[in-house]
Amino acid sequence: MKFGIVGLGLIGGSLARSIKFHSNHQVFGADLNETTILQARMVGAIDGVLDQEVLKSCDVVLVALYPQASVDYILSHQDDFRDGALVIDCSGVKRYVCDRLFPAFEGKKAIFMGGHPMAGRERSGFSYAQDDLFENASMILTPAPGTDVEIIRQAKEIFLSIGFGRVRFSTPQEHDEMIAFTSQLAHIVSGAYVKTPLAAKHKGFSAGSFKDMTRVARLNEEMWTELFLENDDLLLSQVEALIDRMCEYRDALKEKDAEKLKAILREGRQIKESLEE
């Protein structure tokens, strides 16, 4: 099987490395940075450059760019994908991408499917790509309505075969709602938390809690701004709901209400324990 990967940053580079580690498939990569392409070839992550001619023969094309750039690339190359090729974007929002690409592929012989590899690191770029980044990770796929069941099965098998722990299918709406909570809100909370002036003096006073809370504050603001604004309605509702819950803690402290504070702390503990079960 021949894979094309567009964008050899952390995700695209790790996809390339994972494919080469877990299979004998051919991998061809494209990136705006010539040094990145050279680096990927030197470490054996790709077999060659993904140009327009190679693109026409790829069985699977993974587009690991920001959402708008992914849409632009796929639309501009939709007539270059071979018949039966599976084209999957890897961006962190799905409604924005799928709303634009599902209609564009109606009647086309190539198949577009939304995708989101659920793994990452605090640092970006090919230098941080890993062949085991997706070990035990989920690949979320959002097929267009009416996609052939056999194609969906094949997509699942492809990602399981290249190192993912599981494949989860969803609608673009469900994906964006869940990601607003599990990922985007966490990045906002981490960024807000680390801004306290006391953070500068944390050494010697902090342990795992501080490290866990601040880890994802190290982010790419260009990418995350785009992701937040392309999911602003669902993310805003999560932010507002969190503020409401935080106010319960604030009010209990203001009122020195020990019973109320114990009750809301207990509720949080019980929910966490039920999630682990």
How would you describe this structure to a colleague?
The protein has helices at residues 10-22, 34-42, 52-55, 67-76, 95-104, 149-161, 172-194, 208-214, 221-229, 232-254, 258-276, and strands at residues 2-6, 26-30, 48-49, 60-63, 86-89, 111-118, 138-143, 166-169. It contains eleven helices and eight strands. The radius of gyration is 21 Å and the shape is globular. Strands 3-2-1-4-5-6-7-8 form an eight-stranded mixed sheet, with helices on both faces. The chain has 277 residues and is of the alpha/beta class. The two termini are 40 Å apart. α7 (172-194) packs across α10 (232-254).
Termini separation (Å)?
A: 40 Å
Strand-and-helix sequence, N→C?
EHEHEHEHEHEEHEHHHHH
- Global geometry: globular
Could you name the ranges where pLDDT drops below 50 across 5 or more consecutive residues?
Answer: none
Q: What's the rounded overall pLDDT mean?
A: 96
For the largest beta sheet, what order do the strands appear in spatially?
3-2-1-4-5-6-7-8
Structural category: alpha/beta
* Main beta sheet: 8 strands, mixed
How many runs of DSSP E, i.e. beta strands? 8
Q: What's the number of helices?
A: 11
Q: What is the percentage of strand-forming residues?
A: 5-15%
Rounded Rg: 21 Å
Kindly state the percentage of residues in helix: 40-55%
